[in-house]
Amino acid sequence: MPRFLISVSAASLACALAATTTTAQEQADPPKLVLQITVDQLRGDLIDRFGAGLGDGGFNRLLKNGVHYANAHHRHANNETIVGHTTLATGSDPGIHGMVANLWFDRDTGMTFYNVQDPDFELVGAAGVDGDTEIDPTQRAATTDGRSPRNILTSTIGDEIRMHFGPEAKVFGVSVKDRGAISMAGHAGQAYWFSKAEGRFVTSTFYRDDYPAWMVTWEEEGLVASYAETQWELMLTEENYLFASRDDQPWETDFPGFDRTFPHSFGDADSRYYTTLLTLSPAGDEITVDFAKALMTAEQVGQDDVPDFMSVSLSSTDYVGHIFGPSSLESEDNIKRLDATLADLLSFVDETVGLANTIVVLSADHGAPDAPGYLKTVGIQAKSFVFDVAEVSDGMTRLKERFGIGADLIESFTNPYLYLDQDVIALAGLDRGIVEEAVAEELQKLTGIAYAVASSTLRRGAVADTHISRAVQANFHPDRSGDIYVVFEPHWFVAEFDGLTVASAHGSPWTYDSHVPIIISGPGIVPARVNRRVETVDVAATIAAKMRTKPPSGSVGFPLTEALE
Fold first, then answer.
1. Parallel, antiparallel or unpaired: strands 171-175 and 534-535
2. C or N terminus of the chain, fewer CB within 10 Å?
3. What is residue 364's DSSP assignment?
């Protein structure tokens, strides 16, 4: 009997080894292409919520053939564009990769700093600061039209693919937003983004000194200008829309010339806001994908035996969500048109590279809260927070009296960070850490603020072990974070975006901002819907495992096993 058992075990082991060897041989060649699609502000529920009328070639194609992680979250606190994009690209927390916010305050200049700005690398053949920097016009003296990825402190998955497979591996990033393209292209790739000021795609001298001929040809085809005197109209019939009867909601932003109701006119191509209006609609994504297809064709992406990496970041969902709110007819129609745009991209990749040779990873940089006006219709109280009240609050007045400070103590608030005037603190002979913690304590007493924590506390790691404090700690970088991190109460936010008062603004650690989809499709992946909680830091580690490269240098995630089997 014992000998028989040993014999069976040996046979089983031999079969297992044979199967393992066969599998390894079958998977000897990595996929030709990694296509990473990042949909800006695609909250994790929106695909299901607005799924009526979606076709078979976009979201449903990925869901049918891939693993859908329906309970995926960013684990950092500040859910903004550059933070989420860089986390997806690096698999690390903002406290590691360094992109802690879209903007941070530069104490050396006393001005606001934009995340990917770099004066050493000006735009190629373009003049002036791009229109998408989210910096108040009075602060633009601190900006430059130069752009690069040098402020990203770790490698990205695109960098790792380039280093692993050699210089013949092509790495590209395309987006309407400079930060959406640059963060995903990494240090080793090439990034192209849409300049509203120029009305075309641009890059910087970090990547190249001139524009390739195919870009000139693409511009001459006139896709950008072709939307002039046309309108954004509903794509489908009314029965496909949850918000069909709620087109005109009073809390929606009435952007000049665009109106709050369908149809939304793009106007004349020479008008001041023409290119901006394109990005406030599904047209922005359509233009981005058309440019990406031209790039892939001209650069022969995925056309040889060396694997390539292509990132396409789609920004329209974010702009539409800010202006109209996620619960709006505009956001709903945008998802349906985004679905058609995704179908176009996936069909192109299937025809040119083959989806059987491609890993497709779709996720989002962040979600979004609903507009306070919409929330009130279902009984939830929500408000927009005006931070100017903090300096003149009774608590801050008493605090300044206690410390003997007569001047303003708050130098700047750049969401989510509060910056104290260090000169005022030094002149008063005060300990910076003590003042930080005292101010944080007073801020937390204000209505609308749920949590405020001093950087001195974060440096010591002296925070409670809660979900929110862990998220804030993950966001902390000692050189770039402000003096105090501020978390507003759920459904409260600062409703300012690029100089506008908007319907919705993200940037919190609450679930509506952290919840995003992760869908991974490709060779060897068994379709499934997974409802356990996973984190976006796992995405880069999963791509690395699929491509058999090392993870990015700051990676803290784990490969998602369902996408590996």
1. unpaired
2. N
3. -
Domains and CATH numbers, the chain: 36-142+151-376+509-537+544-563 (3.40.720.10), 383-490 (3.30.1360.150)
| Rounded distance between C-alpha atoms, residue 175 and residue 287, angstroms | 10
2 upstream amide cis, omega within 30 of 0? no
Q: How far is the C-alpha of 51 from the C-alpha of 335, rounded, in Å?
A: 8
- Is residue 517 reached through a cis peptide bond, with omega within 30 degrees of 0 on the bond before it? no
The pLDDT-based confidence of 132 (bands split at 50, 70, 90) is: low
List for the chain the helix, strand, coil content (%; round to 5).
Answer: 40, 15, 45
What pLDDT score does 20 carry?
A: 44
The CA distances from residue 276 to 134, 180, 200, 281, in Å, are 13, 17, 12, 9
Q: Where are the alpha helices (DSSP H) in 299-371?
A: 316-324, 329-352
Nearest-10 Cα torsion for 110, 121, 187, 195: 90
Place of tokens 């049918």: 64
pLDDT tens sequence across 264-288? 999 999 999 999 999 999 999 999 9
Compute how many other C-beta atoms are within 10 angstroms of the C-beta atom of residue 318. 28
In degrees and rounded to multiples of 5, residue 130 shows phi and psi of -60, 150
Distance CA 503, CA 253 (A): 6
Instruction: Identify which of 147, 156, 140 has the alpha carbon closest to the alpha carbon of residue 179.
Output: 147
Structure-token pair, residue 167: 């210089």
Residue 258, pLDDT score: 97
Contacts of 277 (CB under 8 A, 6+ apart): 255, 257, 258, 264, 266, 267
Asked whether the whole model's pTM tops 0.90, one would answer yes
